[in-house]
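Q: Please design a sequence for this.
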């Protein structure tokens, strides 16, 4: 009996006729990721895999990016837009099974994709991690996405502790296009998306080249209290001042003198503005029946515009009155360039399959700060600055060999990977502090004649001291064997040895078993070891940044120091080493009825020496570096994650149409089981890794998340109703705020689609149609009333309405 899909993506399958679903499922059910035996379907794999048909779900879903689509169809996947968080506003961190963004490996067409050059350090989800920017891959270029929800470092190497996301690009002949417009219920956050995909033959049977172009625009949103300062009462940024009452009186006098009102002081907090263009390709050319050449890749350019804290007129150390008599709110602009390509050859001889490839990727993040000042320059200060950039590139050479011999499939191969990370300094005024004579002031050349703070306000530029270029390489060999006995007993055994030039070697293995004890009823289990190499970004990122002082009454300069720095050595920090992990899972797959499938999988993930960024450490030994406090990357904690995934899918012929019912849920709990303090560090735990950092790992993401989707297709109509449950989260505002629990919420998506012709479809609908928000923040956690809502659970967009035209030709 043919195995049918259990993916939550079947929420949108009603858009096709039952006959079309039956035909296409034969292809969609086959799984590539997680093993090198391409003959298995989803219900036959010894570990859980979701296969998501992007074209189907994207037609009827309100979401327009890869990470947003996955967020609403895979409960163990989480992604929330952040606000006022520097670069993290522009690249959304994503997580799987409660682990970090850097513990999820992303592949494209089965080949390792590069990460971003950005380090998340603004106390968001994934703090201290480096993830992969899924938004750089245009949705219109994707055929399907496979999500392996199990540790796979023994098969794919570093970063695969939580699982693997494999993005399969389109290779079809023909064309399609999509036009999308959306806007929030508050008349902001407008989105425009236009995409086109076209595939054609290269003049030979089974050859193709598939091209995709997509343009995106997302407007900013404002989610502050009443959009003005009046609601802040006697607080707000005045609390940052040493004498709040005097500061407020001074500002009020300025406002009155200039004939303004307090409503003129809007504070922009919400989603950043994003503009993006993407061009991708996927191609293959068979030279003969045994030899094929292939290539794929693409380019993405993203421009973002986010906002920092407002500097008020009375903040003389951070504002220049002659330039901004009403104060100012700095703007952080980004330009993110992402480039990738792969080229390879496949050879098949006597059922031996060889695949030799080279995959390259790079990510560059440029910072521009505008509507700001270097206060130490006074009236001579520019109001915009080039604040520098960081870049990461990766080149991977792979040789994969496999052969199927009766019930056995054997595979082995090798990999060589080169990585490079760079920080480039900005212009001098973006990072320097000057005295009243225009001379640069440093720790070695102090001066008492200084008017204000140095560097560009809100985001201090990278200095030549921060600038660096570091590289490393790694070599790996792997082997795996799978045994299938008439689809009753499946056994997979995999091992991988890897050597890194900067920290040494690691050996990992995995065993996975599936046994079908009754037809259509099976038990599956897996156990394996894993690792994650410290990224070059974590090893070498360093900068100075503006933040609230440890006393909470001013904005000061703090620092992040890399593990090679003199500061790290002085405080006794060791060099980073790899994280190591043990993964175990056990589950059931059931198909009691022809149209009903159920999977239930439990898992346990233990990580030792997990790499995190510390809290702000105050130490007299850091004063020489011109910062109030410092943060460091360290193998500081051990964690244990346990959870369960449930997916139920049922197709029902109803009233002449087809109803698909899909229920998917996840429960994940992560606990820190141990701390590792540097022996020579004399600081309490609250400074080394405080309650706010523990909160980010343990309880800032929902432990429970579930989706119930109903999709009904009849004739030319398609109807979608999807409810997504976001469990409670906890936010700890330490050291300035309190502990707040955010109650569970349910978000409802609806859409109606109509096929005007075989080739033209119109869909209209809404995300979060009932305008559900996280609970209002308690005052002490809201930065004095600025952040009305925390960016948790479903985020702060509110309801969002869209219309989409889809074309095929």
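A: Design:
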């Amino acid at each position: 009996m043919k195995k049918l899909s259990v993916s939550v993506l079947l929420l949108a399958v009603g858009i096709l006729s039952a006959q079309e679903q039956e035909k296409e499922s034969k292809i969609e059910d086959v799984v590539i990721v997680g093993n090198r035996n391409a003959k298995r379907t989803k219900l036959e794999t010894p570990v859980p895999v979701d296969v998501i048909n992007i074209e189907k779900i994207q037609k009827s879903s309100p979401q327009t990016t890869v990470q947003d689509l996955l967020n609403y169809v895979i409960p163990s996947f989480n992604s929330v837009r952040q606000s006022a968080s520097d670069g993290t506003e522009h690249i959304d961190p994503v997580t799987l099974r409660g682990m970090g963004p850097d513990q999820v490996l992303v592949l494209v067409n089965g080949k390792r994709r590069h990460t971003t050059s950005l380090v998340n350090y603004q106390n968001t989800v994934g703090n201290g991690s480096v993830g992969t920017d899924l938004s750089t891959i245009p949705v219109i270029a994707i055929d399907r996405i496979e999500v392996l929800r199990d540790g796979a470092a023994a098969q794919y190497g570093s970063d695969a502790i939580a699982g693997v996301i494999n993005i399969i690009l389109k290779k079809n002949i023909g064309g399609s296009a999509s036009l999308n417009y959306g806007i929030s219920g508050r008349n902001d956050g407008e989105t425009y998306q236009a995409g086109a995909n076209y595939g054609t033959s290269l003049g030979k049977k089974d050859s193709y080249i598939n091209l995709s172009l997509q343009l995106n625009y997302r407007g900013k949103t404002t989610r502050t209290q009443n959009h003005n300062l009046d609601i802040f009462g006697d607080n707000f940024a005045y609390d940052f001042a040493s004498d709040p009452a005097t500061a407020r009186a001074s500002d009020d006098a300025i406002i009155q003198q200039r004939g303004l009102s307090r409503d003129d002081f809007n504070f922009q907090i919400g989603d950043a503005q994003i503009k993006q263009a993407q061009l991708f390709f996927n191609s293959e050319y068979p030279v003969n029946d045994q030899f094929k050449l292939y290539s794929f890749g693409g380019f993405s350019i993203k421009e973002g515009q986010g906002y920092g804290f407002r500097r008020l007129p009375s903040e003389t150390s951070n504002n220049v009155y002659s330039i901004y008599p009403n104060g100012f709110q700095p703007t952080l602009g980004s330009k993110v360039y992402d480039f990738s390509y792969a080229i390879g050859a496949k050879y098949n001889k006597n059922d031996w399959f060889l695949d030799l490839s080279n995959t390259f990727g790079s990510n560059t993040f440029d910072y521009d700060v505008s509507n700001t000042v270097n206060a130490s320059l006074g009236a001579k200060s520019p109001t915009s600055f080039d604040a520098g950039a960081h870049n990461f590139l990766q080149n991977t050479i792979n040789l994969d060999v496999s052969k199927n011999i009766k019930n056995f499939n054997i595979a082995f191969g090798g990999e060589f990977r080169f990585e490079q990370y760079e920080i480039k300094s900005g212009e001098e005024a973006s990072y320097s502090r000057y005295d009243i004579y225009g001379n640069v002031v440093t720790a070695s050349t102090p001066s008492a004649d200084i008017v204000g703070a140095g560097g560009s306000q809100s985001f201090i530029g990278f200095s030549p001291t921060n600038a660096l270029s570091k590289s490393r390489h790694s070599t790996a060999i792997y082997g795996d064997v799978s045994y299938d006995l008439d689809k009753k007993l499946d056994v997979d055994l995999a091992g991988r040895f890897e050597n890194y030039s900067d920290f040494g070697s690691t050996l990992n293995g995995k065993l996975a078993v599936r046994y079908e004890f009754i037809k259509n009823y099976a038990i599956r289990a897996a156990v394996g070891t894993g690792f994650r190499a410290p990224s070059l970004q974590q090893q070498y990122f360093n900068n100075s940044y503006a933040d609230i002082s440890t006393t909470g009454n001013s904005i000061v300069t703090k620092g992040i120091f890399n593990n090679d720095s003199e500061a790290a050595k002085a405080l006794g920090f060791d060099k980073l080493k790899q994280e190591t992990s043990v993964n175990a899972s056990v589950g059931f797959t059931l198909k009691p009825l022809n149209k009903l499938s159920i999977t239930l999988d439990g898992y346990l993930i233990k990580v030792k020496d997990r790499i995190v960024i510390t809290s702000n450490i105050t130490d007299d030994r850091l004063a020489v570096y011109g910062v109030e406090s410092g943060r460091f990357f360290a193998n500081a904690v051990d964690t244990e994650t346990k959870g369960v995934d449930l997916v139920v899918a049922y197709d029902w012929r109803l009233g002449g149409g087809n109803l698909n019912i899909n229920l998917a849920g996840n429960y994940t709990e992560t606990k820190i089981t141990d701390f590792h303090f540097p022996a020579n560090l004399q600081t309490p735990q609250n400074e080394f890794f405080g309650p706010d950092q523990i909160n980010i790992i343990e309880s800032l993401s929902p432990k429970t998340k579930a989706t119930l989707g109903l999709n009904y297709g009849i004739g030319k109509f398609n109807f979608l109703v999807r409810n997504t449950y976001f469990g409670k989260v906890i936010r700890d505002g330490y050291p300035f705020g309190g502990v707040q629990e955010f109650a569970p919420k349910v978000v409802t998506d609806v859409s109606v689609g109509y096929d005007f012709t075989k080739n033209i479809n119109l869909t209209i609908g809404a995300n979060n149609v009932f305008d559900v928000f996280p609970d209002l923040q308690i005052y002490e956690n809201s930065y004095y009333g600025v952040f009305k809502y925390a960016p948790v659970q479903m985020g702060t967009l509110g309801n969002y309405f869209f219309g989409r035209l889809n074309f095929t030709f």
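Q: Thanks. Anything notable?
A: The domain at 8-224+267-808 is CATH 2.40.170.20 (Maltoporin; Chain A). The first helix runs from residue 18 to 28.
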